[in-house]
Structure formats: structure tokens, C-alpha cells
Amino acid sequence: MSSYPLRKPSMEAAQAFVEVDFDFIIIGGGTAGLPIATRLSENPNVKVGLIEAGVLHSDDPVIYTPRSLGHANNPDYDWVFTTEPQANAHGRVISVPRGKMLGGSTGINYMGWHRASKIEYDAWKLLSDTDGAWDSDEIFSFIKRAEAAVPELENHDLYTSFSRSPDDVVNHGIPRSEAVGINGPIKTCSQKVYTDNVPAFIQACNTLEIPTNANPYGGHTFGVYDVRKNVDLETGKRVDAAEAYYVPVASRNDLKVVTGAHATKIEFKRKSDGDGKLIASGVHFVVDGNSFVANASKEVILSAGAIQTPQLLELSGIGNATRLAGFGIQPLIDLPSVGENLIDHIFAPVQYEVKPGIRTFDELRNDPVFRAEQEALYKSEKTGWMASTDATAAFVPLKWTVGESKFAAMIQALEETITKERDSLSPLQRAQYEIQLDWLRRGETPQVLIAMLSLGVINPEEGKSYFNMVSTLQHPFSRGSVHISKVDALSQPTIDPKYFSANFDLEALLAVHRGVETLAETEALKAVIERQTFPPVSLKEDKDLTDCLRQAFTSGSHYMGTAAMTRRSLGGVVGNNLKVYGTANLRVADASIIPIPIATLPQATVYAIGEKAADLIKNDW
Ligand SMILES: Cc1cc2nc3c(=O)[nH]c(=O)nc-3n(C[C@H](O)[C@H](O)[C@H](O)COP(=O)(O)OP(=O)(O)OC[C@H]3O[C@@H](n4cnc5c(N)ncnc54)[C@H](O)[C@@H]3O)c2cc1C
């Protein structure tokens, strides 16, 4: 472990940090930053420094008890950012959760471990230069490197047995034994506790011809299944980037981590030879109001996440030159797409009260004796309800949700809008929309995730139990932005996801809501549901429900795209080697490089980005 405390900011640690001549400095100790730091420091001959604004929370039950999820939305763990008032959501200001700690957002996320369909990762290639383009095989191989799935036999995927019949189960694509990693740092497992709503949901999906997918890791995600979780079956704890990647190698001499240290700017020199590229040579940071500069002789890697990576680029002089000049920042590289292309998934709940006797995770709220038993079981055996989260979900193409004729009308209207607005779209949007339209028309790739969740219950009555079917939109057409609001790294940037700026997103969300209503009408779900408690059942008309969706939706907390890895001519910020265009040695590696919406819970993909970045850097040096 570091000789300096990582649990609180330390001036001595900051001073010792800047006295090292680093080869590599990584900004942000999160989902991608920690894999990069730990993989690079496998070579004892390089010196690696990592600057993280949050601190280490080892053994904090708020983080590591799976059932505590949702309790970390306060400044001890979270940046607690918010959006600009959203024009298409009655001016609502929406919460933007982001983990602030060693481990980043993996310390506060919901632990769903998932990957997108192959076709979605293959689209990255369509948007990039040919040389070194990423594709699904490559991303799958790096996800495999990051993960350790508990072998099936030891932790059987019980959910397949809940299907109506074996005919409802599909198992296709790359065989699971080849697709899934077993030796990586991130331990993942299947659910051990299934509450009564889960079998009902799976059977309801089967009734509506959504198959049970026994191998959602093989390249085809369509179907209903239990999403694996990054929970360690042996310890019963959340597995985050800090515990999985950093803690086991913390005593390495060549790896120095400074926490409570807020990076404020990247320092550059300009190359004197022909290409005149910028060379990143150091990083400014502050600890408790005191400024420091650390030096890197080889590379600086920016892994501050999709909100703060563009902020730091702009503060360092990389971005839209006119915008930067307006803030009095000398533009070093005119890259107008920095901070553009902000993508987020959109979530909207439908809440149901269950019939008496049906058990959901609300048992823990309603029955103090049961809760005490479960807490004791967790303490002694590291298992039971406290070690569990609910993660059953259906990934479904929009076509299924809507029905053929309505779907055809929706697509036609969407195509007309895109054609009409073509001149005002960015080159990247035009390319993305073509790809997204193709996915929609084919009707095989899920655009929709319906998640079975017991979290976020609205106004629960004592003694009653509930679950939510959360409709989520995974391939939105709306694009927002993140930009600096002042020349102050410590203040939050202006975050404007522009939710529903593409009207299609709202129509699609309404269609998903209708799909959820149909699911609730199946015999399987009717057997467990007492009544719908949100949205109010009195809201029947499309117009009223649409209004309710504008009021009730939340961010999926899956921000991506703000430093997109695409061709420069399309408005890319980084190339296939993750280097920022116009720089010789500044790379971005985090969720901001994801170029197009992907229908997945993104952390496994971001870990893969970190793993791949480490490989690219090792190969170059
Ligand atoms: C509430 C919530 C629930 C989620 N649920 C899931 C889920 O179930 N499954 C899933 O797959 N994904 C989920 N996600 C999304 C997933 O966790 C993120 O997409 C992913 O972790 C992002 O990784 P990143 O490396 O881009 O950023 P992060 O992991 O957030 O890392 C960025 C790091 O940089 C640090 N940093 C930022 N600015 C600075 C600075 N100026 N100086 C120093 N350090 C800085 C931050 O403190 C942070 O540690 C969820 C996210 C949230 C917030």
C-alpha cells in the first residue's frame, strides 16, 4: 500500500508525488484509469503516476455491501453534478451521478455486468480510420481480460429454468465458454436470490415471444436474462476498480497514486519537428487549495470520464477555438467536437404493488426480523439477500415493442426528420443516424432495455411491497454537450444532454411504456401484481403519458461520446490509438471515446477500453 494515506487528501503525499520523474501520468482513477495504471506498472522499469480527485473507501459498507446500492449519492462519494434545465422536460434539472473516489463510478454503480451485441461494436469500425480500427472481436477479447466469471457449474444461471418451456430458451453466438473470461480481476457472478417477481417477468416475456437468452455474451443480446453482477461470491462484496485492480498491487514501487488531488490542466510543449504536434509534459493539480505540477516524460492519459475529460481538454486549450477564446483560453488545437456528442440512456419507471405474500426486496424494508436475519447471514456467511441485487432484464428491439405498422410509420417519420434536418446535423450525427436506422430496420439489435428493479420505489406504503419495470432507451437520437462554464476546474461544467431534442426518443419511450403495460397484462405478471402505482392509472391517453414521461424519466448515468474515437473528418477527438488529434502523446481512455450509443450497461466496455489502452501504450514504448 502507498506509504501515504489514500483515504484523505495529503499535502505530503502531493509533494512526494511531484518529486517523481514519471514516465506516464494518468488523470482519473476510475473504470479505465485504474486498469491502465496497474497494467503499465507491471513493468518495474517504468514510473506510473495516477491523480484522483476522490479518495479510497476500502471496506466502507456503503460501497461494498451490494444491497446498499443507491446510498452513495452524496458528496462523500459522488460529484453530485446536475444538468442544465431540460427544455423538453418541463425545464427539469436532472441529477448526473458520477463516482468520485478511487474506483470512479464502479464504486457507486448498480453492478450490472453486461456487453453489447457484436454489431454495435463493429459499428465503431465504420466510423474510424481503417488503420488500427476496433471491432467486436477485439472489444470482446479485452472484456474477457478484465472479467472473471464464476464457472457456470458453481453458480448456475438459474433464470433459464424459470422459462415457460425449454423451447423458450435460445443459446447462440460465440459459445459462452469462449466468450467469457475467467481469469480477470473483476469477479462476476449470477444471482443467488430470485424474488418472486423475477420468474413472473421471465414468463411474461416468453409469452410475448421474447426468448430467454442463455448466452447473452455470445454477440446477441436480444432476450430476457439475469445480467451478471460484479459481486464476489466468496466475500459477498461489490468488486470495483479500486479493490480489483489497485489494492492487490498497491505496494508496487513504480506506481504512485495521489488522492484528493484535482487535476486542473495539462501542460504542453510544441514539437519542433515538421508535424508540430503538441507534447503533453505534465499535469497541474490542486490538493486542499494548494497547486502542484507533476511531470511525465512519455505520456499523459486522460481518464476522467465523459463529463470531466472534455472539461480538462478545454481548460488545457483543446476544443472549439472560438469557444476557448471566449473564455480567454489560448486555443492550442482547434477540435470543435470536444464536449459534443454527449449520449445518455434514458430511464422511466412503471411501478407495481404486488399481491400479499409475493416476496420482493421490500421484505428487507417491511420485516425487521427478516432483515436482521439477513444482515447476520451476510456478516457470517457473506451471502443472502444483502449480497444480492436485482438484475433481471429484457433487451428487445424497438420493432417488437411497437408492432409492425406503427413501427413502419415511426421509422418513416424519423427518416423524414433526418432528411429535413440534414444540413444542421454534424457529420458524425449523419453517420451515426444511418447506422442506428439500419439497426432499427433490421429489428434484431435491441434498442430497449426493460429492467426489473426494486430500487427507487416512489412513496412506498408500510407493509406493502413493490417492483419497477423500468423502460430504458438505449440508442437515443438526441445528442447533448458538456462544456466549461468558467475557467475553473473545480466548478462543474455545463452539462446539457438535450434529452428528447430528437422527438423520436420520446415517441420510442412511450412505445416502450406501452410494451411494459402489455407485459403487465400477461397471466404470469397478473398473478403477482396487485395494482400499478405509478404512473397513475388514470393517465391513459398518449398525450398525458408523454407528459408524465417528461416529468418522471431519469438519466441512465451512462454518459458517453464526448471525446469520440472517430475519423477527424467526422468530428473525432481521438484516433484509433486513442491519441487526441494534434498531440503526440495525450491519450483519452474512458467512456467519452465511445463513438455511438451502445445498448448495454457500459462498465465492462469501459474496462475493456482501459485494458486496450494499456496494450496500445505498452506496444508503443
Ligand atoms: C449510479 C450509477 C449506476 C450505474 N450502473 C451501472 C451498471 O449497473 N452497470 C454498468 O455497466 N454501468 C453502470 N453505470 C455506468 C458505469 O459505471 C460508467 O459508465 C463507467 O464506470 C464510467 O467509467 P469512466 O472511466 O468513464 O469514468 P469513472 O469511472 O467515473 O472515472 C473517472 C474518474 O476520474 C476522476 N476525476 C474526474 N475529474 C477529475 C479531475 N479533474 N482530477 C482528478 N480526478 C478526476 C473521478 O473522480 C473518477 O474517479 C452506472 C453509473 C452510475 C453513476
TrEMBL record:
Belongs to the GMC oxidoreductase family. GO terms for molecular function: flavin adenine dinucleotide binding; oxidoreductase activity, acting on CH-OH group of donors. Pfam families: GMC_oxred_C, GMC_oxred_N. This is GMC oxidoreductase. The keyword Signal applies. Keywords: FAD, Flavoprotein, Glycoprotein, Oxidoreductase, Signal. It comes from the Eukaryota. Signal peptide: none annotated. Its cofactor is FAD. Residues 99-122, 305-319 form the Glucose-methanol-choline oxidoreductase N-terminal domain. The keyword Glycoprotein applies. Gene3D superfamilies: FAD/NAD(P)-binding domain, Glucose Oxidase, domain 3. FAD binds at residues 602-603.
